[in-house]
Amino acid sequence: NNVCVIIGASHAGVNFAFALRQQGWLGEIRLIDGDFHLPYHRPPLSKAYLTSKDGIDKNLLKSEESYQKGNITLQLGLSVLSINRIDKTLTLSDATQQSYDKLVIATGARAFIPELSGLENASNLFSLRTAADVTAIRDAVNNCLNKRVVVLGGGYIGLETAASLHKMGAKVTILEREERVLSRVTAPQMSDFFQELHAKNNVSILTNKNVTHIEAKGSENFVFCSDGSSFIADCIVVGVGIRVNIELAQDAGLEIDNGIKVDAYNCTSDPSIYAIGDCTFHYNPHYDRFIRLESVQNAVDQAKIAAASIVGQNNRYDTIPWFWSDQYDIKLQIVGLSTGYNNVVIRTEIGEIIKFSVWYFKDNELLAVDAVNNAKAYVYGTKAIKERKLIDKLKLSDLNTEFKLENL
Ligand code: FAD
Question: Rounded distance, CA 303 to CA 274, Å?
């Protein structure tokens, strides 16, 4: 009676557990997570779920009965403290031990909190990674309209959180250290678009703002930047990135790089241990390099690959990454990886709603597409990247060319 234990019950861990059962695994499946809640969707935490009054039961990955039906044991509110690879045992936070035949590490990532002087004394300071974070932010912001919120960081999570908090009645300012928002992941034209979008909605984004320290005075915080400016905040939301939860794997002596290193089947350097989701450093065949992704699609894809591999069906991981972001009435879909691009083509559709796409090329090779309210561009972009289609850039930007992949 083989036992498969999964550390981390979120997008990767839960999808893996169900995939493994579906693939015909007859042994025990145990899902362990330090979080007390039934596993839930993370993307809505900064989007619709934050602005709603819903409880987490409205945002679950699977109903409680599904785990029972699948004969999957959930052990919540319990953290794994260490892995003993020789005995194949785990030590848990309640001081018990469990043994495994196959182990899957799906520990994801946690919010990164920078070391800023005064941060430890700040009042109403939050990050956004868990359902508990949302409850705390809602409580702080909902209690009083026009709460002054400073969001540190203009990445996707910072921007989405700002849009949601604005909807909840807060007065929001985003402080971004770089000269533009989303500078690591998008072209300047996209940064400008989001900067203007937030400005139109009365959320100010201030760039080149390197926060140096925070002083709490009563219930107010003073946020100071290196250029001498300061901002008053009733609440601060820190959205400056994540740290990958690699410590368990590292302490167990597994190979680590920018994440837990896995092969094309998501197996680690130990044949009994797999790793999936945000915590992995994996090879992407299309882009011919090792990468780490923070995306639901990657977590789900890798879950399926690992489950198949454990039951002896070797499907290699080979996908084009995609991601999405919702802010106000804008739906952004991103496909591919734009890193290394050296030219972009922008196609703006004429119509009542904002609809455009940014196509990222390295010379003539299409690397990625950002599609704003434009599902067609996202679909065409995905197909063109996968097939390595040579795109006619002039036709792409010419609105007289009907927007169809075969015309480009
Ligand atoms: P995680 O979701 O990080 O889960 C890891 C789990 O492991 C956690 O539940 C944690 O409690 C548990 N764990 C860690 N260590 C231990 C331990 N030692 N013992 C027991 N349990 C442990 N992605 C998109 O594709 N689109 C989006 O729009 C999007 N929006 C997002 C918005 C927010 C606010 C956040 C936070 C993320 C968003 N993401 C989005 C990213 C997406 O949620 C992640 O890529 C996804 O959650 C990764 O799943 P995972 O299972 O690998 O890791």
Answer: 10
